Amino acid sequence: MDRRAVLLAAAGLGALSACGRGFGGGGDDAPDGAVVLNMVWWGDNTRAQKTQAALDVFQRKNAGITVRTEYQDSAPYKDKLATRFAAGDPPDLMAMRMDSLREYADRGALLELTGLNMDGLGENARALAAVSDRTYGVPSGLNSIGFVVNRTLTDQFGVRIPDGDTWSWDDLGTFARAVTEASGGKVYGTGFDLFTLANLFVFTRQRGEDFFTEQGALGITAGTVQAWFELAQRMRDERGMPPAGFMDEAGASAAQSYIAAGKLASQIIPTNNFLSYNAAAGGNLALLRMPGETQGVRRGQSIDTPALWSIAAQSKHPRETLRLLDFLINDPEASQATGTTRGVPPNQQVAAAIRPGLAPDDQVATDYLIGLQGETLPRSFTYPPGGSAIASSLETIATEVEFRRQTPAEGAAAFIAEAKKALAE
Amino acid sequence: MSVLQQTPVTAPASAPRRRYRRQDRSGYLFLLPWFLGMLFTIIPFFASLYLAFTDYNLLNPPEWIGLDNFREMLADERLMRSLRVTVIYTVVSVPLSLAAALGVAMVLQQGIRGLPVYRAIFYLPSLLGSSVAVVILWRYLFGVDGVINKGLAWLGIAGPAWTTDPSHALTTLIILHVWTFGSPMVIFLAGLRQIPAAYYEAASVDGAGPWRRFRSITLPLLSPIIFFNLVQSLIASLQTFTQGFVMSGGTGGPADSTLFYNLYLYLRGFTQFDMGYASAMAWVLFVLIAVLTAVNFLAARWWVFYDD
Hints:
The complex is a heterodimer of chains A (about 425) and B (about 300). Chain A is an alpha+beta fold. Helix content of chain A is about 45%, strand content about 10%. In chain A, strands 2-1-3-10-6 form a five-stranded mixed sheet. In chain A, helix 3 (about 45-60) links the parallel strand 1 (about 35-40) and strand 2 (about 65-70). In chain A, helix 13 packs across helix 14 and helix 16 packs antiparallel against helix 17 (about 410-425). Chain A is globular, with a radius of gyration of 22 Å. The two termini of chain A are about 35 Å apart. Helices cover about 70% and strands about 0% of the residues of chain B. Chain B has helices spanning about 5, 15-50, 70-75, 75-110, 115-130, 130-140, 145-155, 170-180, 180-195, 195-205, 210-240, 240-245, 260-270, 275-305; strands at about 55, 65. In chain B, strand 1 (about 55) and strand 2 form a beta hairpin. The two termini of chain B are about 20 Å apart. The chains are: A alpha+beta (about 425), B mainly alpha (about 300). The interface of A and B includes residues 85, 388 and 405 of A.
């Protein structure tokens, strides 16, 4: 039986949940009606416990459906997912990376989510997962990036934190230099990766450009890449930023971060990780907006998602999987259980409903996001295929520039050439 | 000697023949796990040969494109960079680690008390060397403010960024590789024991010094062992993956300076969904290793000396 037909027949999950197990239609469920769904995602142990708590609620409400989950670290996740698809054994529900969405969707591997109720999602949230006018994913939560500042360190060195709503990139430079000087070089004022796309996206938009355009072309110009490299080089020369080679992406977790180790006074983080960073850094972090938001041509920050939920086109149980997805997105009980481990719930009513019950740190990140959502921000566009090759060439070139093996201008020209080549393939 | 070789071509009588057959059968029975295991090697082996001539993105069926993958390889700058990294790594680290292995083996051969303990200590790194845990430990040792740099700072030397500076990252991996000389060392130790002590005694009587004894007795008699270790290390080194993967967080960075051939192959296959291209790369590596090994065997005629 055609899966799309089944979905059309299902038409609206509200009706579906009401019908419960007895809902008609074909399918290959076990004779006793038991359905086992496989759900995979990446993350840590805390996220696992919170996810399981939500699934327990789901299984209580949906007798006969069992959800079997698997999770691992983000790096091996991507490979494992690709391998499972290649082996013809895709999971039913999966966390999908933003930069992989089109690689899967364009190749027909994902189910078009026509039957899912997304009324509660804002314009920005829905646009995140749109591939032309089709939807192959739902944001698992909303986040953005923000600047965290370790107030324990700034208090210790007597450095004033700039106003996080209006500060400029120059203010960041001044602040960073002041911290490094006051600490006698023991602590650097700031540090962030130049090749993390999310960071560069913000800077690019502030200059009136898009990194990837709506048509999936390269929108960033060499001038912007050069300015980005020069910005960091200036801060490095002034010693506000650590010297080349100091930053090492090995310790990606909050506990291993430089801000937790007290080596950096500020850094950029995804806001849904605020809780864990704050815990790791001793509970005294301030969450600021990105610098340059009020000085640039336009706003740079955007509403993003750490991951999308997608369903495999080959799923044997698309109806049940859709029901599970509907639960995760639209049922306040699910978000109460998961907290903001995947970001602020994309459904605005759900987000408002659970906010009062959240832990104080979760509220900080939630308020930050709710504030951003109320503003007019540029939209972020789906990564075109070839995005992963672009990310890797940016990483290579940023390192070359960091060690002064290339000037910012040379690096920028090289990056644009490589990126155009990757998109043409 | 194998069971099969003992079976005469023509069995003289019927009774023994039955016995031999039973023997054959048990031989094959014991080989059965190997045959089953081979299936898991042979099927992917031919599958990858087929995929090498296709465009295969893991999600859709492979599409036959003939030699296109191989043509693309010729123009692929990153591939050439990865070859260069692998060749530099091999050319520098294989001789160094073999020299270290032979050196330590000869010291241990002198008959130190507690030899098994030393042997174990030196052998341990080669068991752990390419494991994830050790590479991570290595990162901490060689971090910007790791143990090594703290030691250097104490001596008044400003240590470099060992793992994050593109000019030093490969050197750090070469040091790691040399450190894992234990397994060729154990083989050298076994080889050294085979050399009759009488040769050395006779040479000493004739007035040969240590260097002369090493050049004229140890090296020639040990040459089959050196040859074995050389071929083994060369093949292993060309297939290096884990060290580069873990040290660079799976990217081959900083700035592609640890982008080993196999790491690039993996990146193409699994992160860029280019399994056809990755398969083609695997076959090129296979042919490369086969040719190098053949060259090694040919060259061996000139310097490997068999004493029997």
